[in-house]
Design brief:
Order of helices and strands: HEEHHEHEHEE
Radius of gyration: 18 Å
Shape: elongated
Strand content: 15-25%
Helix content: 40-55%
Distance between the termini: 41 Å
Strand order of the largest sheet: 1-2-3
Largest sheet: 3 strands, mixed
CATH class of the largest domain: Alpha Beta
Amino acid sequence: MPNENLDKTKEITIEFFEKMTLPIEIESCKTEGQLLKVALLSSDAQTLIGYQGSNLADIQSLLARILRKKIDQEIILDIDINGYKNDKEQRFCDLAQDTADEVVSTGREKALFPMNAFERRIIHTELAKRNDVKTESIGEGDDRKVKVIPA
């Protein structure tokens, strides 16, 4: 992404949250190909994140549409507020490794609790690094979960 678009992205993001009357500060804004990662700080993080990140997902989707239209560039937006996503990702990586260790030691597969696509992707990605287990998604809709299987 050209620097002028990155600067414009920051301005649009700040304006977006100002109009919502929710204070934010941009901690970092960087691109990795089409992926635009924006880390925000806010004293009202709980409101912005919502229950299990539902508000954050909605904000991210809406802001991504606005940015694509205003900067006329295809982007994939990833917003993190006060490190919420990083912390969540680390917890799910730890869960994946602990579950894999259990599956290997018992020799029995284990299905985890229902998760959204973001959470399942973390588990699959983390365990793809190991050759002693494999994963698969099972279930439908809101009941979809990851099963960890000995290899």
